[in-house]
Amino acid sequence: MNDRVMFGNNGSKFVARVSKPGKDVASTDLADFSLHEDFSTLIPIARGTTTLATGASTSFTLSSIIGKHPFVVMKSSDGILPVAPYLNFYRGTYYLRVIPTTGVCTLYNEYATSLTITYAIFISP
To answer: Between 42 and 120, whose confidence is greater?
Structure first.
C-alpha cells in the first residue's frame, strides 16, 4: 500500500503532498501528485495545533494572506469536522475566520467539549 498524504515537516522543510492513486508521496516525479508544495497553485504558509476550551478562540496575524483568499484545512483530534458559522441551522463546531484585508485569523471552538485542532493555511501565488 502506498503512502498518499503528507502534511507536515519532512526534515527541515514543510510539505503538503497528496499523491495520485497508485503513487507514493516519496516520489520525485511531480506528475505523480494531485497536490505538492512545489506546484505554483498553492503555497503552504502556516500550520499549527492548538487546544481550545468550549466557547474559546485564539487569534494570530499572517501578513502573507493580505489581499489573498487562503485555503484552510482543519481537523480535530476527535474526528469532528468543521462547519462554517453562517450555517445557522447547525451550531456546535469549530472554524477558522480569516480577514484577507488585515491578515487576522481567528480559530473558534463552539463544540460542547474542549478540542485539539490542527490547521494548515495555503495561498496561491
So the answer is: 120
Residue 39 pLDDT more than 90?
Answer: no
Residues in CB range of 87: below 8 A, 6 or more apart? none
List CB contacts of 83: < 8 A, sequence separation 6 or more.
Answer: 90, 93, 95
Q: What single-letter amino acid sits at 96?
A: L
Q: Is 6 helix (H, G, I), strand (E, B) or coil?
A: strand
Q: What is the pLDDT of residues 40-71, one digit of tens each?
A: 777 889 999 999 999 999 999 999 999 888 88
**DSSP category for residue 112:** S
Q: Which amino acid is at 6?
A: M
Q: To which residue does cell 508521496 refer?
A: 25
Residue position matching grid coordinates 467539549? 113
